Prior knowledge:
Blueprint: H1 3-13, E1 15-17, E2 23-25, H2 26-49, H3 56-73
Antiparallel strand pairs: 1-2
Amino acid sequence: MDDNENKETLIDTNHWDSCCGKASDKRLLIFSANLCISLILMIFSLVRLCDDKLLNEEKATYVGFITLVVGIWLRSPLS
């Protein structure tokens, strides 16, 4: 394989066609979906933690959600 074939293969694997006939980058769509889900979960958890009527046992669940999202986005110190 020469360089042109390698570039075409890379472009093909990162290229998605939508139902509307538009082309999009696969990496951008995956990143955007992950970011949106993470933000929704973080905002929901933070709003629930601000509720004074919430019991301590229930707060542990929302702190766990926040820890999960932060743990997913932070890179491992070994890598």
